[in-house]
Design a protein that fits this description.
The protein is of the alpha+beta class. It has ten helices and 13 strands. It binds adenosine-5'-diphosphate and magnesium ion. The site of adenosine-5'-diphosphate (ADP) has 14 residues, from α1, β4 and β5.
Length: about 350
């Protein structure tokens, strides 16, 4: 259930961080976390954690999230932020066709935040750890002069033969994506609109029930461990894989560059939820553009050899959206009229000037 933080009652009787001190804060926030993974030998409390990584190869991924750049706390509840921050990292591990086992969480917080606010953040982190069977094994805590910064590192493992890089796609491989796309972008448009309405009229009570799916895609995304399990069950090792964090176009161009192949995708094959289509109509933007450039859907995009077609053709979790071709043909979208449109990376860019 989405509770709009813009409407939250600010309770003045909350615990300040300065009254607590760093060590009591860490203890308090992490006391409910237990180690569940065999490879976690020692967790929080010493100078370093200890892991016993016997099986397969180890995969590691880190993300850094800055308030005002990557998230907006006026509509992002802290619990959701904690959940999403972990999920985004786990998604990178799944995108290697690996299983995540541990995370570390580092935070920098200003004194604007209370203990209760950080408890919310860690409730979300805890839920993501529980849902994905991942241990919190450490981190760092420091103060910041303004806002909240969050950095998460995820550690996972997989058999060497299972690990899937961006670089293995071959000409004629099928290009497959899980779930549907554009939802997180559509949800963001709704939340930005409500934020603007709220600024003008703080007493407005938004009815967001028609947008529930898209708002959830934005605020509470999931990482596709179910797709990784499905691939294992179907005995398929993708030839290349990436998670959709910046938009389909951008991810296809990454696979193309790393694998030295081109791609052809078909507009009519792009998976869209009906709610996302109606939000696009409401905002008068093209739903294909939302899919290509939207981002933050955290679906998995991968290539498989043609011989796997029968295993995946009618699977409800998977859509075959196109295929790999020669590098010289580039990356093209074929629309309903048979016209080819070159894909460009309009995904979110950290270092753009605006
Ligand atoms: P040090 O001074 O050696 O860096 P800290 O006092 O920062 O140690 O951390 C003590 C323990 O608490 C370590 O195990 C560290 O990994 C853990 N820790 C610190 N901050 C966090 C956090 N925000 N989340 C989870 N664990 C943390
Ligand atoms: Mg430290």
């Amino acid at each position: 259930m989405y509770f709009c933080p813009m409407l939250e009652n600010k309770n003045p009787s909350k615990t300040t961080l300065s009254s607590l001190g760093e060590f009591a804060l860490i203890d308090h926030l992490t006391q409910t976390f237990e180690l569940t993974q065999e490879s976690s030998v020692l967790g929080i409390g010493d100078d370093a954690a200890i892991l016993d990584l016997a099986e397969g190869q180890t995969v590691v991924s880190t993300d850094l999230l800055i308030e005002g750049v990557h998230f907006d706390l006026s509509y992002m509840p802290l619990k959701h932020l904690g959940y999403k921050a972990v999920i985004v990292n786990l998604s990178d591990i799944y995108a290697m066709n690996a299983k995540p086992n541990q995370i570390t969480v580092s935070i920098a917080v200003s004194n604007r935040f209370t203990l209760e606010a950080l408890e919310e953040l860690y409730t979300g982190i805890h839920l993501a750890c529980k849902n994905h069977k991942v241990d919190l094994i450490g981190g760092d805590t420091t103060s910041s002069t303004s806002g909240l910064t969050l950095s998460i590192t995820a550690i996972g493992n997989a058999d060497e033969k299972q690990i899937t890089r961006r670089s293995g796609a071959q000409e004629n491989d099928l290009l497959v994506v899980s779930g549907d796309l554009g939802g997180a972008y559509a949800g963001l448009q709704i939340l930005e609109r409500e934020k603007a309405v709220f600024k003008v009229n703080p007493n407005s009570q938004p009815d967001l029930s028609n947008y529930a799916y898209s708002i959830e895609r934005q605020l509470k995304p999931e990482a596709r461990n179910d797709v990784i399990a499905l691939l294992a069950e179907l005995n398929i090792v993708p030839t290349s894989m990436i998670d959709v964090s910046d938009g389909l176009s951008s991810e296809i161009l990454h696979l193309s560059k790393a694998s030295n192949v081109g791609f052809k995708i078909f507009e009519e094959k792009l998976p869209l939820d009906h709610e996302v289509i109606s939000i696009c109509e409401e905002f008068k933007f093209n739903s294909t553009t939302a899919v290509l450039n939207g981002g933050e859907d955290y679906e998995l995009l991968f290539t498989v050899p043609q011989k796997e077609f029968d295993k995946i053709k009618n699977h409800p979790l998977l859509s075959i959206i196109g295929h790999a071709c020669d590098l010289a043909s580039g990356c093209q979208l074929v629309n309903g009229l048979g016209q080819q449109i070159e894909l460009t990376a309009q995904g979110w860019q950290s270092f753009s000037d605006e």
